[in-house]
Amino acid sequence: MTRSSCAISQSLEIFGDKWSLLIIRDLVYLGKETYGDLLKMEERIATNVLADRLMLLEKEGIVTKEIFVGSKSKFKYKLTQKGIDVYPIIMEMLFWGVKYLDVKPEQRVVAKLSKKRRVEFVKEVMTKRRKELAVRN
């Protein structure tokens, strides 16, 4: 149940905490797939928070959960099309953060390279993820 009909307010219901966007970042940008992979993020997410956010993202149709091949108790998380479409937002946050915050030098390099061909770069990443999504379905 939403509290508002405002698109920004409703989006913040999903992405209003840092963890949801960082999980999506790791799935897209760092190629992480499993709960264990995501648990190792640099920002040190708590196990209960990770489980909660993954459930929310799955409920909202942003990620899917599949049984990991070779293990019935291990799952693989993948972005849906809805999740892939969040990527440009994350990239814009990267560009803003590099411009105004004290970040790692390698992030400045990635942002500089990406920003030169901003639209093309984001489209390339999203196209790659869409192809991966199509192969799974």
Characteristic key phrases:
single chain, 137 residues, mainly alpha, two-stranded antiparallel sheet, 8 helices, globular
Span from first to last CA? 30 Å
Query: What is the helix content?
Result: 55-70%
Number of helical segments with 4 or more residues: 8
The backbone outline, from C-alpha atoms, is globular
Q: What value does the Rg take, in angstroms? A: 16 Å
Instruction: Please state the structural category.
Output: mainly alpha
Strand numbers in spatial order across the main sheet: 1-2
Number of strands: 2
Helix/strand order, N-terminal first? HHHHEEHHHH
Q: Low-confidence runs (pLDDT<50, min 5 residues)?
A: none
> What fraction of the residues are assigned to beta strands by DSSP?
5-15%
Describe the structure.
By secondary structure, the protein is mostly helical. Helix content is 64%, strand content 7%. The chain has 8 helices and 2 strands; from the N terminus they run ααααββαααα. It has helices at residues 7-15, 18-28, 35-39, 47-59, 81-84, 87-100, 105-116, 118-136, and strands at 63-67, 75-79. α6 (87-100) packs across α7 (105-116) and α7 crosses α8. The mean pLDDT is 87.
Write a short abstract of this structure.
The protein is mostly helical and 137 residues long. It contains eight helices and two strands; from the N terminus they run ααααββαααα. Helices cover 64% and strands 7% of the residues.
Which helices and strands appear, and what pairs or packs with what?
Elements: H1 7-15, H2 18-28, H3 35-39, H4 47-59, E1 63-67, E2 75-79, H5 81-84, H6 87-100, H7 105-116, H8 118-136
Antiparallel strand pairs: 1-2
